[in-house]
Write a structure and sequence with these properties.
Number of helices: 2
Shape: rod-shaped
Strand content: under 5%
Distance between the termini: 23 Å
């Protein structure tokens, strides 16, 4: 869930950055999205490991 929340927050920040022509906000949004993807990948890996043991 945390990954999805970060990705949604990042998309909103990126959109606001584009709307206001704020490069810093766009970059923060992209970073939040990347962080969300990483969290999702970690959760998937944990679930895969639990399924194998």
């Amino acid at each position: 869930m945390a990954g999805k929340r970060d990705k949604m927050k990042g998309k909103a920040k990126e959109a606001m950055g584009k709307a206001t022509d704020n490069d810093r906000l766009k970059a923060e949004g992209k970073m939040d999205q990347a962080e969300g993807k990483a969290k999702d990948a970690m959760d998937d890996a944990k679930q895969a490991m639990r399924g194998k043991h």
